[in-house]
Amino acid sequence: MTIDELLPLIVFTLVSTITPGAATTLATASGAHFGFRRSIPVMAGCAIGLGSIACAAAAGLGSLLMALPALQVAMKTLGSLYLIWLAVRIGRSGQPRLDGDMAKPTSFMTGVWMLWYNPKGWAMTIGAAASFAALASNPATLAILLGMTFCLVAAFSLAIWCALGQLLGRLLKTSWQWRALNFFLACLLVISIIPMWRG
User: What does pTM read for this prediction?
Assistant: First the structure.
């Protein structure tokens, strides 16, 4: 397999993962409050979560999930409630404290779980599995290819957003600036729920 054959998949994955959404907002907020290094677990969780969804979608589990509307509604509801809870936490947080009482960054498992409940992530990876099936000779090979591509490209995209958040964190000096950023990120997180309920 050549890079020319892989390039359309890489571009599709990059566009899908770098556009603003729940994971990118969470990476930005974590970068602003905790810096890049302490945000690695949540970014890794999101990237591995998306990669594992892509594997499952290519293996056929995604089609089964999309055929069960009641399960989709349950996932959307639980996911929406969780994102609202995260948004409230971000919106109510203030300027980071540099003492022992500093809150902990979002965990690896939270990143994984946040991706697995999201029907939009399933739809995106199922679309990729259908569009790029010709790149592999069998479903297992396609699952590995899509899983690795989505995981690596998502990690790159989230790292960019986290670095942007860290830069914002260094620029903000006053409490009101932090409150404004936290409110803005919380609103973005809530807005990211809307596409989940479309279609």
Answer: 0.82
